[in-house]
Amino acid sequence: MKFLLEVTVDEGKPAEDRARELGRVLRYWGGNLHHYALEPGDGSPVHDSDYREVGQWRIVAGEAA
Fold first, then answer.
1. Distance separating alpha carbons of residues 60 and 42, to the nearest angstrom
2. Could you read off the pLDDT of 37-49 as tens digits, one per residue?
3. Are 58 and 2 in contact (CB under 8 A)?
4. pTM higher than 0.90, yes or no?
5. Whole-Å CA distances, 19 to 7, 11, 22, 27, 47
6. 38, 59 contact by CB (below 8 A)
7. What percent of the chain has pLDDT over 70?
């Protein structure tokens, strides 16, 4: 299986703010994965700290790279 994470980062913000927000997204969703079976078809929208949808994660069938 493959775990795919796609997040759009606001290019209009300073690099430090983008890195901080991306780190927060990774920590939050990484810590939240235990709520899922992690089987192909599982997934969820990803939200930033302002609760805007900025991407998604999903599990797909296939071999890991």
1. 8
2. 999 999 999 998 8
3. no
4. no
5. 12, 11, 5, 12, 15
6. yes
7. 97
Instruction: Evaluate whether 39 touches 62 at the Cβ level (below 8 Å).
Output: no
Residue with tokens 């599990």: 59
* H, E, C per residue of the chain: CEEEEEECCCCCCCHHHHHHHHHHHHHHHHHHHHHCCCCCCCEEEEECCCCCEEEEEEEECCCCC
* Token pair listed for 10: 């606001």
The CA-CA-CA angle for residues 25, 28, 60, to 5°, reads 80
Q: What gap in Å lies between CA 11 and CA 34, rounded to an integer?
A: 31
